[in-house]
Every structure is written in C-alpha cells, then in structure tokens.
User: What shape does this take?
Amino acid sequence: MVMCWMKRRLPQPGARCAFEQRLIHEKRTDQSPRGKEMRMNNLLQLKYAVEVEKTGSISKAAENLYMNQPNLSKSIRELEDDLGIAIFDRTAKGVVPTEKGREFLGYARSILSQIAEMEALYKKSDEKKTRFDLCAPRASYVSQALTEVILSLGPDADYSVDYREAGAMRTIKQVANGVNQLGVIRYQTIYEPNYLNTLAERSLVYEPVCEFACVAILGAGHPLASLQVVSSLDVASCTEVLYGDASIPALPVNQARELAQAIEAKNTITVYERASQLELISRLNTAYTIASPMPQDVLDRFQLVQRRIDLTGNLFRDVLIYRAGYHLSRLDRLLIEKLRESAQRVIQES
Assistant: This one.
C-alpha cells in the first residue's frame, strides 16, 4: 500500500519541490521496519511505472524487471487505485500514459533520480571514494580526456570510475535508466532531429562537445594509404569494419531499408570493441573503418594512417547527455572541459 503522501492529489508544478522533498525526507527520517518496508514498496512501484512507460508494454517491462506479468499488472493497478488516477491507457498496441499519468511519471523519474543522488551523498564513511562514470562512443579522445581527469585527482586519490563504450542508443538507455550519470552520443547532423526528439522523450538534456568530419582509418600498408583524400568509390571493394550497435532512432522504414541494403552490398566485419577494430585494420590490408579523427600516438601504436574521405553528409556531432534534474558535480564539469579540449586537440591535429 502506498503511504499517505501518495494518496493526495498530484501537486501543481509550483509545489513540485515540496512533493519530491517530502519523499526524500521520509526516506531519510523513517527508519522503522514498517517505514522501510512501505518506502521500499513505494520506490518499487515508481520504478515499475517508469519502466512500463519506457517500454510501452507490460510484458516487456516485466521481462526487463525480472518479474512475471500478472504481478507487475497488479502492482500498477494498486498504484493507480492509491493515486486515484489512471496512469496508463491500455490499447491493443500496448500501454500509453494518460495526461495525468505523464504528469505523475515526470515526478516519479525526478524522485528516483534524487533518491539515487541522495544515497550516493549519504553513503557511510567507508564509501568515501571519488566516483564518476561515463558511457561514450568508441573514440580515443574520450579515453584521453578520462585519463587527464584521473591524473588531476593526484597520486593518493581514492577513486572508482565506470567507463563504458557503446553506441548512441545504448548510451541513451544507460543514462535514462540511471546506470550511468553521464553519456556522450555521436550522430550524423542530418539525423539530429531524430536524436534530440529521443532525448526529450526520455527527459534527457544535452551539451555540445565537438563537431567533426569523419576520416578513413587504414593500415599503413593499405593500397589507398598513399592517397590524401579517399572517395566512397575508392573503398567500394574494401572491407569495412563496423560497430554492431549503430542505429538511428525513429528512422522511416524506407530509409532504414536503404541503409541496411547499402551495408549488405559491402564486405563487412562487425565488431563491438575498439581494440579489436584497430587490430583488424592494422593486419588486413583491405580493411578500413570510418571514424572520428584519432590521436597520432594511437595511429602509430597500431601502424595506421587516417585520410580525409569524401562522403555525403560527412558532418558529425558528439554531445554530452544527462538526466534532467541531475546536478553536475565539479568532477563532471572537469570531465566535460577535458572532453572538449581533447576533441579539439585531436581534430586540429588530423
């Protein structure tokens, strides 16, 4: 059963802070066994509702939450009964939030985010490590920036860093679900509306990091390595090494089919990890990849060269993303600064 504050009418926007602060206050002050049990039930119900909204499906949400569908449906119905509103409309194609449901879910996401931040803030003294995390594209400038941030902490620092490399859609999901606080996504600027709409739907905000033209990365012994500019015709008979998690949100079916057919027409090797990609390119004289500019020391380490490539729409943008309401720490701000500096340095050297 949901606590008394959940039984009241949803607050108006002006009362939002008080609404959220009351839950956080109750979490901090009510430490009785009954209080803990009720609080846990409240938080689970909020989590369940948010997951149903994300997936648009009770069955898919239940799968993601590792629970059976009847129990999830029951929990959502109990939450709706206690609130006195319908959070979701059930349709033949799934579930969609009602107008009141969207309002409530906005509060729910904010509450879950604030509680996660509060838990990190009030950890016991044996958890005083400096912690930060990032989910980002497979780009050398990112790892360089992360290294600079770690070095700035000093040799005696006690820290824990969670650094993941992933495609844009996986990164969006990681940050929206609170797995990572910060993310960097990369997209071709012609598809920017698709990505920005997806960020808005998931209550994510963004800040620009860099803008660049991709280059062709080739082994030093590649037949095209002597060229200064490579064309799409030049690489047509070569093997492209691709990342397997590249996707574009809300792409019309005909455009998605055209992109898939273009990839199908090539010789390709699909990988999910950057070191494997570079190793393959360095050893296969017919292989190449299209990537952001790389630092010279990385190219030298793997005996690679990078060349300008003539491609339609060759303008890409990397943006940093985080949840709306998340307060950037001093370390987060330092990481953003280092990301921009590192990206600019690599782009200028290319």
Residues 125-212+316-349 form a domain with the D-Maltodextrin-Binding Protein; domain 2 fold (CATH 3.40.190.10).
